[in-house]
Amino acid sequence: QLLEVIPQQQQQQQLGEATALASEEGRRQQAAKSVFCVCRKECGDMFCGQMFYDLLECDPSCAEVCQGKGMVMSGCAGAREVTWYHNLHYKYTDCKDSPLQR
User: Fold this and answer.
1) 75 closest CA partner among 63, 67, 83
2) What's the pLDDT tens digit per position in 18-77?
3) Pick from 37, 91, 26, 79: nearest CA to 59
4) What does 35-58 look like in DSSP terms, one character per residue?
């Protein structure tokens, strides 16, 4: 009987882990991408390289994203910072999936 209990416990643990992963994936799908990876072509010429869910996701990836587009990374920014680019007389091209496009 003890041998039967151990596999059941392992199955329950695996089911719990799978449920937690599915739940996290569901939360991510509901969350909006709100962090902008901002790339710079030249001084004052900014582009959105890609949208991310959070800074932890954006920060390690943004430089590579910008490099792949032939630009340098300006940084990861939120919507408030990006909306100031116009006031600072920067030229800015937004991402297609940006929340500012809605």
Assistant:
1) 63
2) 565 555 555 555 688 999 999 999 988 999 999 999 999 999 999 999 999 999 999 999
3) 37
4) EEEEEEEETTEEEEEEEESSHHHH
